[in-house]
Structure formats: structure tokens, C-alpha cells
């Protein structure tokens, strides 16, 4: 592990000396020389938006269009359509959800071709540097990391199987915890993940549920290398399946068959059973249900918040400068994704353990979930969205459209009733 | 891995699109990125379903009507020039458009008349150039959902058509529509500014 550690320090020093900014400055200069427009990613959205409500906007539109005295008999006007029209086209140009499912755009280039938007403004010097980077990443770092990953995974499978043969008891638990921890730590090194943990005093305890925002499958390794957790998930085939079966021999994880996942009551029942047993480790859950690109937090599914256990929220924020950790599952499979991870410079992230939360008497599960989500978003500096991350696969519910329709109807019909009475 | 280079040269016919729509190169690049993000399975064109997947559009009561205006004449594929041509109508009007305009050239896509025409098309479902009372009712129904009774809606539709209809044919033509909105600051209400 020694060579990797020094490599990390070197990378750290390089970044501190404004390496990435230098690369971008070179490109900007090159672009200016050739008098071209440089594409600059704009992280806050591409159009100017007014945050006014439906009622205000429509009143504005009517006021600007009519010379009639503005009294209370406002009914439907032909111009009302402009509001919906413009709002609709605005969402076609830029909406809050679609951009969360592609990798975050960087302000300055980090010498990885995958994050580059201006390939042709690269001077010779920059290309050489990039080539050097490729050489280092693929020929030096990658083999080291693959070797480590291999070691980590095999140790995990073998170690947990061996521990599984022991009789149940304190010794077995102790051994299993440490086998898990050791293997996760090796895997963390395999990805060169540089993790900063904050507020470790708030780490999850037995009988609780740990919830975190989800960016990639690596989140699991990052959290589990600093604490002991019971995993929850679907049973997979192939290598994952082997790992899962081995792990569950050593300590009780909660794995569901594909058919069981749909049955929400069954899921809730098993989770509740696990949580009520104080000797079992805290459960690790990602309530978003899907990977988001780490610029926002989307709707938390309420299932885990109905159980009634103490929730330990955790915020994970990756620094995209050294390597983008977001798993775009529609674009890359798992193996391609892991290879991309292992050929980035490093995975740098911060983990914040937030103080535990419990559901209050007047809150329902959805409100509790939103409260936890806001706390996580605030801590990680992420945008707090109400949209469901599952939107990319399913259509949005009609209830949201009805809300809009209700608001609008009140404007035109509420006044109509006044008229008919007079 | 492939470089996701999106330099303007990658956009086919970028110069003719620029001339037709009046968008700056930077804006076109942004819209091209957006087009490719919406085309998540990389077909090279957009279908209705791709636009319907935008959550915020699906909850807009006129969402389907707006999507229809991108697919004129029953076409099923929307390519990038078509995409930008519709969005060009929402380009803010700047003074240089009107100042240097050669009267022989066709009207710019984002002129006041063209913006009005876009809104008119949202009402005029069968594209016959007139908004009939029936079409007015249908659009009203989209905007209010189930919140309003049929009678109330009918009286609103009647009143609106009557007020705007000048030649007494029971329908609102485009010129009547434009006349009833002549005082409206359309240029501002139907403009979306793309940030540089």
C-alpha cells in the first residue's frame, strides 16, 4: 500500500498548485488566439427564470394587456395562455430533473478526456501532458488498483465464509465486523478514495437506520469502511451474488429476492424485525432508490421512514475535480463504471454524520422523509428537490397537474360566482 | 469512452440555423447540449415520449399542446433544426433585429406576430386558422381539469369568443386574436432569455 499512498500525496500537491486551473487557462488562451467561442458549462441552469407564482404571473399578464380598470371581475382572458405556454417551453429548455442524471460539468478541466468539452482547443503542450496522464493512470495506477481490488474482494468472500463456520456468539460477531472492515478498507485503497469524515461522534448505532444520498455503488464501500453496517438490497447474480451469499454467512444482512422487492409489507416487516433486534447492526439504506449525479437530493421513498426507528442521516459529497463518481446506469454497466473509477485520478469525498432524528408525533412518514432530506441537502451543499428520481423510468403522477389546474380554476371561477350572484 | 466534444462544428448546418433563428453561437451550443441530453438513447432525433418524460412539462396543463407544436403535420421525429426553430420564437426581441431589418427578408422567427401565432396555434387545435367555440372549450377544459362545471366553462367560452369576434362568424381568426391582444407586451411575456 505504500506506493499508492505516496502517489496520493503527489496528486494532492499537484492540485494545490492550481494544476487544473492551469489547464483551463491554456485552453482559454488558445481559444482567444483563434477567436472562437469557448463553451463554458453553466451549473445553475441555462435560462433566466422568475420565481413568481401562477397567480401573480397571470395577473401581471392581464394587467399589462388590458386598458380596463382593474377590478375584481377578472375572468378568463385569452392572454392567460401565455403563462402556461412560456412555463412549458422553459421546462423544455431546462428543467431541474433531467440534468441530474448526467455527470456534473466541471468549471475547469482535470485532464481526463471524459470531462472535456473543447477537445480542439488543446495546444501541443496540453496534449503531451494529457498523454502523460493517460500513461500514469492506465499503466501505473490501474494495475495497482486492480490488484488491490482483487485482494479485497477475495479476502471478503473467503474471510466471511470462514467466519460463517464458527458457532454464533460474541467471537463470531467480533471477527465478522473486523473482516468486513478490513476488506472495505482495502477496496477503498483500490479506488484511491480520499475520504474526510466529519462529526464521527454521530455515527449510527445498533437498532438504527442509516440513510444517505446515493450517487454510486461506491457509497456503500465508503460508509462501510468507517463503521459496521448491515446491508439491504436485492439479490444479484454473478460475482455480486457470490459476495452477497458469503457476507450473509458471517453476519445478518437483509437480502431480498427480486420478487419480494415489490411486496412493500414484506420489506417493511423484515426491516422492522432487524431493527428491533438490538444486537444487529444498523441498516444502511439509500432512500432515493436510484443514483443521482451528486448535485441534488431527490425525493426519499417513505418506506424506511415508516418503521419508527431512529434515523441517522449521512451526507456524502464527492469532489468532481479528481474523478466523477456518478454512475449513469443507462450509459455504463457496472464493470465499465468500475474501470472508469479506477482510471480516474482519485475519488475525493466528504462524509458528514448528522445528528440522529426521530419521527415526531404530528409528522407522517412523508414529512419526516422530507425533513431528513433537507438536512442532508443543507449539509452537503446540494439542491433539495421534491421530484422523484424514479421519474426517469416512469411517468409523473397526475396529482401534480391537478394542483396547477386547481390554482388556475380558482382564478377564473371563483370570480365567476361573484358575478352570477350580482 | 469517446470525447463528448460539442464544438459548434459538430452541429450540422450550424450557419444556416444561426441565420434562420438568430441565436448566437453560444446559445446554439447550449441548446444542442440540451437536445442531446433529452435524446438520452442517442437516436439523433426526439420523439414525443422524450419530451413527455420531462416531469415539469407533464404537470403543465397545456403540456401536450405544447409538445404538439413541436411535431407539426403529424411528424414523429424532431431533429435539432426543428427543435431550435420552435424555440427561436421565444428569443427575446432586441433592437438590432428591428433596426437593420431588410423588409424584403422574411420576418424573424421571434417577431411579435410569430410569437402571437405560436400562442394562437395552442388554441387552434385543427389548424384551420380560426378558434371555434368548441376549440376554446377544449383548451379551457385542459387548463381547469375537473374543477369547473360544463355550464360555467361554456359561458366563459361564449363570452370570450363574442368579445374577440368582430366579423360575427362565431370564431376568432388570427387577426382578431392579434387585435384583442394589441396592448399586451407580448415581447416580454413570451420571451425566454438564455444565459451566456
TrEMBL record, chain A:
Single GO cellular component term: endoplasmic reticulum
SMART domains linked: PlsC
Pathway: Lipid metabolism; Phospholipid metabolism
Subcellular location: Membrane
Swiss-Prot/TrEMBL keywords: Acyltransferase, Lipid biosynthesis, Lipid metabolism, Membrane, Phospholipid biosynthesis, Phospholipid metabolism, Transferase, Transmembrane, Transmembrane helix
Transmembrane segments: 119-140, 147-166
GO biological process, one term: triglyceride biosynthetic process
Domain Phospholipid/glycerol acyltransferase intervals: 208-319
Family designation: Belongs to the 1-acyl-sn-glycerol-3-phosphate acyltransferase family.
Protein name per its UniProtKB record: Glycerol-3-phosphate acyltransferase 4 isoform X2
Organism of derivation: Balaenoptera acutorostrata (Common minke whale)
UniProtKB/TrEMBL annotation, chain B:
Keyword Lipoprotein among record annotations: yes
Gene3D superfamilies documented for this protein: EF-hand
Keywords, ordered alphabetically: Calcium, Cell membrane, Cytoplasm, Lipoprotein, Membrane, Metal-binding, Myristate, Nucleus, Phosphoprotein, Protein transport, Repeat, Transport
Stored PROSITE patterns: EF_HAND_1 (PS00018), EF_HAND_2 (PS50222)
Ribosomal protein is among the record's keywords: no
Chief place of localization: membrane
Protein family (similarity comment): Belongs to the calcineurin regulatory subunit family. CHP subfamily.
Protein name: Calcineurin B homologous protein 2 isoform X2
Organism, as annotated: Balaenoptera acutorostrata
Amino acid at each position: 500500500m505504500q506506493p499508492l499512498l505516496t502517489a496520493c500525496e503527489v496528486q494532492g500537491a499537484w492540485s494545490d498548485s492550481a494544476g487544473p486551473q492551469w489547464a483551463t487557462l491554456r485552453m482559454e488562451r488558445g481559444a482567444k488566439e483563434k477567436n472562437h467561442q469557448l463553451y463554458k458549462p453553466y451549473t445553475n441552469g441555462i435560462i433566466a427564470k422568475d420565481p413568481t407564482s401562477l397567480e401573480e404571473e397571470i395577473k401581471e399578464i392581464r394587467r399589462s394587456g388590458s386598458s380596463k380598470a382593474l377590478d375584481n371581475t377578472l375572468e378568463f382572458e385569452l392572454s392567460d395562455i401565455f403563462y402556461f405556454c412560456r412555463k412549458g417551453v422553459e421546462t423544455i429548455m431546462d428543467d431541474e430533473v433531467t440534468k441530474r442524471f448526467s455527470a456534473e460539468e466541471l468549471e475547469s478541466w482535470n485532464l481526463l478526456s471524459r470531462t472535456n468539452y473543447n477537445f480542439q482547443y488543446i495546444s501541443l503542450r496540453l496534449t503531451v501532458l494529457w498523454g502523460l496522464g493517460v500513461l500514469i493512470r492506465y499503466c501505473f495506477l490501474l494495475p495497482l488498483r486492480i490488484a488491490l481490488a482483487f485482494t479485497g474482494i477475495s479476502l471478503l468472500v473467503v474471510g466471511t465464509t470462514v467466519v460463517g463456520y464458527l458457532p454464533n456468539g460474541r467471537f463470531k460477531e467480533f471477527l465478522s465486523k473486523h473482516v468486513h472492515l478490513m476488506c472495505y478498507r482495502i477496496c477503498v485503497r483500490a479506488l484511491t478514495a480520499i475520504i474526510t469524515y466529519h462529526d464521527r461522534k454521530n455515527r449510527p448505532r445498533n437498532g438504527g437506520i442509516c440513510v444517505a444520498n446515493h450517487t454510486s455503488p461506491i457509497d456503500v464501500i465508503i460508509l462501510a469502511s468507517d463503521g459496521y453496517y448491515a446491508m439491504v438490497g436485492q439479490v444479484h447474480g454473478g460475482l455480486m451474488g457470490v459476495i452477497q451469499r458469503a457476507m450473509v454467512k458471517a453476519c445478518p444482512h437483509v437480502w431480498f429476492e427480486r420478487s419480494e422487492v415489490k411486496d412493500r409489507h414484506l420489506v417493511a416487516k423484515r426491516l422492522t424485525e432487524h431493527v428491533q433486534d438490538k444486537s444487529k447492526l444498523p441498516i444502511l439504506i439509500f432512500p432515493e432508490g436510484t443514483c443521482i449525479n451528486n448535485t441534488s437530493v431527490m425525493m426519499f421513498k417513505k418506506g424506511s421512514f415508516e418503521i419508527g426507528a431512529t434515523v441517522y442521516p449521512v451526507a456524502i459529497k464527492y469532489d468532481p475535480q479528481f474523478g466523477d463518481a456518478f454512475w449513469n446506469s443507462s450509459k455504463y454497466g457496472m464493470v465499465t463504471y468500475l474501470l472508469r473509477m479506477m482510471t480516474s485520478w482519485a475519488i475525493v469525498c466528504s462524509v458528514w454524520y448528522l445528528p440522529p432524528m426521530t419521527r415526531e408525533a404530528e409528522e407522517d412518514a412523508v414529512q419526516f422523509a422530507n425533513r431528513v432530506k433537507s438536512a442532508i441537502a443543507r449539509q452537503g451543499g446540494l439542491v433539495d428537490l421534491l421530484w422523484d428520481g424514479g421519474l426517469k423510468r416512469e411517468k409523473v403522477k397526475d396529482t401534480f397537474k391537478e394542483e396547477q389546474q386547481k390554482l388556475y380554476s380558482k382564478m377564473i371561477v371563483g370570480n365567476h360566482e361573484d358575478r352570477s350572484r350580482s | 469512452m469517446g470525447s463528448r466534444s460539442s464544438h459548434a462544428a459538430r452541429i450540422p448546418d450550424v450557419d444556416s440555423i444561426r441565420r434562420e433563428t438568430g441565436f448566437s453561437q453560444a446559445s446554439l451550443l447550449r441548446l444542442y447540449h440540451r437536445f442531446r441530453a433529452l435524446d438520452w438513447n442517442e437516436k439523433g432525433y426526439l420523439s414525443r415520449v422524450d419530451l413527455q418524460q420531462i416531469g415539469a412539462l407533464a404537470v403543465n396543463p397545456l403540456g401536450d399542446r405544447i409538445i404538439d407544436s413541436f411535431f407539426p403535420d403529424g411528424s414523429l421525429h424532431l431533429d435539432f433544426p426543428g427543435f431550435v426553430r420552435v424555440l427561436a420564437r421565444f428569443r427575446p426581441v432586441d433592437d438590432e433585429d428591428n433596426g437593420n431589418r431588410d423588409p424584403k427578408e422574411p420576418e424573424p422567427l421571434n417577431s411579435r406576430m410569430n410569437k402571437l401565432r405560436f400562442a394562437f396555434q395552442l388554441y387552434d387545435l385543427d389548424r384551420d386558422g380560426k378558434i371555434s367555440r368548441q376549440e376554446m372549450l377544449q383548451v379551457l377544459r385542459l387548463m381547469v381539469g375537473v374543477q369547473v362545471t360544463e355550464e360555467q366553462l361554456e359561458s366563459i367560452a361564449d363570452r370570450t369568443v363574442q368579445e374577440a369576434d368582430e366579423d360575427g362568424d362565431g370564431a376568432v381568426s388570427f387577426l382578431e386574436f392579434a387585435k384583442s391582444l394589441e396592448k399586451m407586451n407580448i415581447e416580454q411575456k413570451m420571451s425566454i432569455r438564455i444565459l451566456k
